[in-house]
Amino acid sequence: MSYEENPYDYLFFNDGLRSIDYVLVIQRSVLTNRGRIRRLETFVQNLQKFGFEFEKKTFILDADFEFILLHFREEKMFDVLKAFKYDLTMNCEIYNFPVNKFASFFKNFLLKPVKSDPLYLRAPDLFDGYKPTTLTPAERILAVTLILNKNRFGIHWYEFGISELIRVHAAHSAFPIHEGDYRWSKSGPLTRRQLLFEFGARAKRWFQLQPSNMIESYFGTEYAFYHDFMRMYTYMLLIPASGSILVFVWGFMTISFSQNIIAAEVCASDKLICPRCSSCRYFYLKDMCVSENVSYIMFNGVTQLFAILISIWSTILLSIWNRIETKNQLKWNVSFMEKDISMRPQYKHSAYYREADSGHLEAYVPIYSFLLNASITFLIMVVLIAISVSFQIGMQFLRHFLTIGFLSTNNSDNAYKSGNQVVTAWSHFLLAIILGIFLMIYQKFCYYVSYKTTEYENPRTFNEFMASYCFKCYILDFVNFYTTIFFGIIKGNVGLDPRSYSNSLFSQGCINEMCSLNIAIILFTIGFLRTVWTVIGNFIIPIIQFKLRKRKYENSIYSWNNLEQWEKDFLLIEADSNLITHAMLGVLVEYGFLTFFVSAFPITPILTLISGIITWRIDSYKTMKYYKRPNSRKIDKMLNFSLLLKYTTFIGIITNTLIICFNGKFLEVIMYTFFYNRESGHEPHLYTYKSKVKTSEVFSIYNFTVKEEYCFYNSPKEERSIETLEFDYYPSKQLLFIIIVHVVVLLHKIASLIIPVLPQSIIEETAHLQKLRRIEKFQLLERTVISQRREKLENERFKVKI
Q1: How many CA atoms lie within 13 A of 415 on its CB side?
Q2: Any idea where the Anoctamin transmembrane domain is (predicted)?
Q3: Structure confidence by residue, pLDDT tens digits, 206-215
Q4: Alpha-carbon dihedral sign for residues 466, 468, 470, 472
Q5: Whether residue 588 has pLDDT greater than 50
Q6: Quick one: which of 666, 719, 669 has its CA closest to 692?
Q7: 669-724 per-position pLDDT tens digit
Q8: Residue from 262, 263, 258, 252 nearest 290 by CA
């Protein structure tokens, strides 16, 4: 088939009337025993009993493969969806919501067509975007998938479903067919796949709105919800990304001004700093002048204010997503969709049964069995967490000893050493690279183990299964990606007594005060590696797999354009059933980096925006070009993701506020500027190296001797003096934390009121349409009653028979 021809002509049986709704692939060389043949025959025969019709086609490139093209009559599809209690999109109240003038700027030709344009005439029904009058393509696939997943092929309890048929090698694969080629044609009708690829998947359209209604009609509501969230999330990230730029601009502009109080104090100080480990050397505080000035560019007074605004921004994002989700529920008629409470076959087989009050048998799991399964799952989770934490602790020890080794190799007789910051920075960068690569690989392993343990738990329904699986993955991602960063923050606030050094993890190996630059290096490296991993795993590897599949048949006399559509789809990559779930979990990890640690690394929003755009574009591109068409799912909302997003938001508020209050100099600088600067006499020291000890008492394996009598170290708990402001600001930090959290939560409540779940205009229009529908039903009922009354009167009219 040439992609310049009419693509719809090749989506039907030979009669040109019956559509191809699904494709079942068999491999003759694998059907070597009678058992597999019997299972396949039983499966197809049972489909025929449901009303399926089929045609057989041989693969033109390899006669060993045979395609069974399936057709399911539309009236049967209506019956199936009604039996499974699915509400149809065609019955929705409102399908197209009005878009404000600002959003219309981001519309493309697909969402804002010009009817006089020749392109519009090639697909007027698709460009108009009117409410469907029949089943959408995704609903047709859903109806077929429901039957295929329930269809039996044997007498045993587990012999049902297309997945099990493929597992026992009675079939090779099964997939719904794409609507023609993705490539743009110069003439003829256009398909949804062509339009979605051209106006939704291309990288040059990253800033334009996604055609969510068309995505829903082609892929189903699960994909549509995901793309709608990514669209909203990407646009919302433009705000904090702009704030990150302002933080940097402010830092560059004020680096030599009076606002850079801490760096000025460091550069002018003659303090001797104690060795940070037993084999380290002394250094002067002014040696950290460069690192403090670099740190000020990112961590200045505006950074703390920006971090507070990010917490407020996250609550607004939550309210906007809730609104978009509710609007989509109305558009796709899933607001009142009944939740699937049917038992999973695996649960149904392994459960015990008892007689209920109604007289029917009900399935249940004994409490001892539930506790056993839960205990084993909990132990497995603990082991996975322990492995991750142990590796990260091991990397900290490795970094610690590498730093010690680098700092103690040269001039061991010299008690003073400069350039410690460069060595420490390189050791942290190396740590972050090794750790990032490990976490990427370990995440895949954790997801696999989580899925298997959830299968072992054997939840009752599919929704419970996915909720348990998502929760496990989220917990493991939380531990894997955030433990090292939290450890760095804690280490920046812990000081060790140089009189009794040991090889502790908390030995100061920081580039600057509070370890802020160390945390920035780790966050940047892990974020960059995650983006590279996404590009490799979701883009480069699918391309290689697709090329290898095509290369297998490159010596054939037939070209790609000679293949039928089902033959082309057969060579595409199989889409993972949890593709959207894993994509949303990845978004939550990036969102956690942003909301948790923006005060520790204010460039995070820019990195998150770039990563979000790349992930979003790659997901759209690969799904339209390299992946088989996935089985559609009709869900009322992304319940698990929305809950985890809410939890992440509120955890981020608390974490971000803690870092602002206890891991920075925000409050101290304010008090210095507005209070102590006006006093005469001493000036308070803002730097943390406040505690001092005699150099003769410092523990060192080299027994260094220096001319200074005292050296200083970072331990705010010891030898506090009136000069350090310690008595003034430490209780105030606790009060500041309480104030910020309560203010942000209050603003979240206000945002929920300002941004209602639905606009008032939509509520009024929906109520008006419902009123019209009630009037129409009442008028129909009234006409029916009047007609029946007239017929009854006609039959009862008095007549004289002669």
Answers
A1: 18
A2: 215-766
A3: 777 788 889 9
A4: negative
A5: yes
A6: 719
A7: 665 555 554 444 444 455 556 678 888 888 776 677 788 888 888 765 444 444 44
A8: 263
CA distances 234 to 608, 609, 640, 665, Å, are 9, 6, 21, 32
Among residues 250, 289, 283, which one has the least CA distance to residue 267?
289
Instruction: From residue 283, give the alpha-carbon distance in Å to each of 541, 686, 703, 706.
Output: 50, 19, 15, 11
270-289: per-residue pLDDT in tens?
Answer: 888 887 776 677 888 888 88
At residue 84, the 3 state secondary structure works out as: coil
If we measure between CA atoms, which residue out of 79, 56, 203 comes closest to residue 144? Answer: 79
**Tokens standing for 449?**
């183990």
Model pTM score: 0.84
Query: By three-state DSSP, how is residue 493 classified?
Result: coil
Q: Percent of the chain beyond pLDDT 90?
A: 28
Judging by beta carbons within 10 Å of its beta carbon (0-12, 13-18, 19+), is residue 798 exposed, middle or buried?
Answer: exposed
Side chain identity, residue 333: N
Contact, 314 vs 653, CB < 8 A? Answer: yes
Q: What is the pLDDT of residue 286?
A: 83
Rounded to an integer, what is the distance from CA 579 to the centroid of its chain? Answer: 10
* CA neighbor of 141 nearest in space, from 578, 638, 629: 629
Give the whole-angstrom CA distance, residue 281 versus residue 585.
Answer: 45
Across the chain, mean pLDDT equals 81
In angstroms, what is the C-alpha Rg of the chain? Answer: 33
Structure tokens, 618: 């790659």
Residue 323 pLDDT more than 50?
yes
Q: Could you tell me the two tokens for 772? A: 């019209």
Sequence spans of domains, the chain: 7-185, 223-673, 761-797
Q: Is 175 in contact with 162 (CB distance < 8 Å)?
A: no
Nearest-angstrom CA–CA distance, 165 and 158: 10
User: What's the token pair of residue 218?
Assistant: 């082609």
Phi, psi of 55 (to 5 degrees): -135, 150
Q: Which range, 167-176, 209-218, 388-397, 515-524, has the best average confidence (pLDDT)?
A: 167-176
State the Cα–Cα distance between residues 422 and 429, nearest whole angstrom.
Answer: 11
The CA distance from 272 to 18, in Å, is 86
Which DSSP string corresponds to 762-782?
Answer: HHHHHHHHHHHHHHHHHHHHH
Return phi, psi of residue 710, to 5°: -125, 150
In the three-class reduction of DSSP (H, G, I as helix; E, B as strand; rest coil), residue 23 is classed as strand
